[in-house]
Amino acid sequence: MHSRAEPRRASPRLSCIVAVLFTLGCGTSVPASDSGASHTQRESNDGMRASPVSSTALLTATPGKGLAVDVTVKSLILRGDTVGITYALYIRPESRDSLSVFAVDAPAGVTSIPNPQPKTKWWVSPRFQGEDIAYWASLGSLPPATTGVPLYFESVGLPSIVTHWTVGHFPVPEGEGDDTTSHNSLRDNAVKGKTVGVERFASDRTPQALLTRLRSLTQATCTSPLLWVTDSLLCGKLLSAIDQAVTDHSSGRTAETKRSLDHYRGFLAVQRQGALPERVTSAAFWLLRSNADIIGNML
Fold first, then answer.
1. Alpha-carbon distances, residue 242 vs 205, 212, 262, 272, 282 (angstroms)
2. What is the 3-state secondary structure (H, E, C) of 100-120?
3. For residue 212, what pLDDT is reported?
4. pTM of the predicted model, to two decimals?
5. Contact residues for 266 (Cβ-Cβ < 8 A; gap 6+)
6. DSSP track, 178-206
């Protein structure tokens, strides 16, 4: 009778990388373009501090959750129906873990996700375990007090509020890496937060419907739990301008609707000039401004 051979124990770092790659599920990865976006991007830090949205764990003992990460929307571009978003991550000094994974929900699907440079240190995918998710796995190390390289993806739809996940590096216990069907690192080992992403077009894409939607987005950025805009006076001005635009458009006054929408965008433009940067996050600016631009182009 032969005794069963003990499996060779993999190094903790290799186990973690294997788990990151294979928990995506078979057949979900596609080759990513190695080239960056070849278009001019409006950077959020030219005249306005890119106020981050923090993804902070309670630094508990849960593997992968020893992270405090600032997620900043660096830029958002519109090209027809395509939306391109660039994120920057800062792993805060109080983090216990290095960053291993950053992922953004992509309900409209991912049309492009270029490999960050240097490409040998990143692995990307437009899907995670059968779900439409923009997924970046670091094959190197992003320790605390580090800023990561820009991460970019494109989708077709409307800028919206979506979930993001950050996962810290942790050794996978022996044997767990063999089962790639039950383990879900985004469910079990991630810190969740909110950022700007892309959602599918609704069936009603009329200016009136999009104006009503923009009002809801504005209200969401000004209230808990997001609080992406903490200046109550500015929130009041934005809501008043969008309410006037809704009223004007419903009455068939196109010129007045454009004027009201210009006032709305003007209030946001002041933020880019640095008037109240600490009270408006980059996520709020790019979310609201891009949706206002989409409506303005339709009028």
1. 17, 8, 10, 19, 20
2. EEEEEECCCCCCECCCCCCHH
3. 98
4. 0.80
5. none
6. G-TTT--HHHHSEEEEEEEEEEPPPS--S
